[in-house]
């Protein structure tokens, strides 16, 4: 056990050092790491329709978007220019759209260096669109944990589209759709102009049951609620609910019995050490593994800093510094979204996290 904990502690320290080095490299290039957002949603959820409108919005002037297929988004009608290759299109809105012809890691790195060389506009954020059937977990792992990505980018959050008309049936019939909604930071309910108030209320209730911590926005064919803010500040301004006094250590927030997907919140009442953090990560990796769909946390560390924590399945990204720790702030908490894990199993992870050993 000592060797395992020592290795985990070394890994955590290495990850923190890597994150610092990546941030320093980004700063040396003239900016910090570029935030990357994952846009996901099941087949027919309205994701492509939403994206087609967003890429033409002035709010996306400084955004690069990696899309599945140019033809589906209909980019050929409003071109300002085209790069020397045929996989990059600059719209008159200023949004840069790119088709991915290689691995995500290679695509992100290629775009970054083309940006540095002045071949494409200096985008300040990146949006990656997934296919409708995609399990978001591997992509989140790549964006949050891959060393080649972390040199220039930081994972900033997940936005998931849900169809107001057929969303309830889709969530019930397809595990992938439930997983996409469960791990989201923002849930965009689309096609609200095609449903009545009763249908919309049912969808919102189902989403609150599935993912109680996500922001919910509404979208129709013509407009969206606050669409200029869909991709702003999810990571740095993330706030987690705080359990009321007297609640059990792992308080259930939501539960989908059909797939065994549940979310729990754990309250952390004091700063944690880097060694405790490493033991906590090792515990979740060992006891949760693939059952841990996503972990989101805001923790104060013994070094006096506050960090945002993101994990998917057995992979955790380097902690992201948010600023000085604030003992008076109540936001220190962990949200664990898991499949087929009991509240007792999740609560047991607090012991290694808060242990002084």
TrEMBL record:
CDD domains with a match to the protein in the record: CobW-like
Domain called CobW C-terminal: residue spans: 261-354
Domain of life: Bacteria
Pfam families from the UniProt entry: cobW, CobW_C
UniProt keyword list: Chaperone, Hydrolase, Nucleotide-binding, Signal
Similarity comment: Belongs to the SIMIBI class G3E GTPase family. ZNG1 subfamily.
Signal sequence, renumbered to the chain: 1-21
Gene Ontology molecular function: hydrolase activity; nucleotide binding
Cellular compartments per GO CC: cytoplasm
Entry keyword Nucleus: no
Function per UniProt: Zinc chaperone that directly transfers zinc cofactor to target proteins, thereby activating them. Zinc is transferred from the CXCC motif in the GTPase domain to the zinc binding site in target proteins in a process requiring GTP hydrolysis.
Entry protein name: Uncharacterized GTP-binding protein YjiA
Keyword Hydrolase: yes
Reaction equations catalysed: GTP + H2O = GDP + phosphate + H(+)
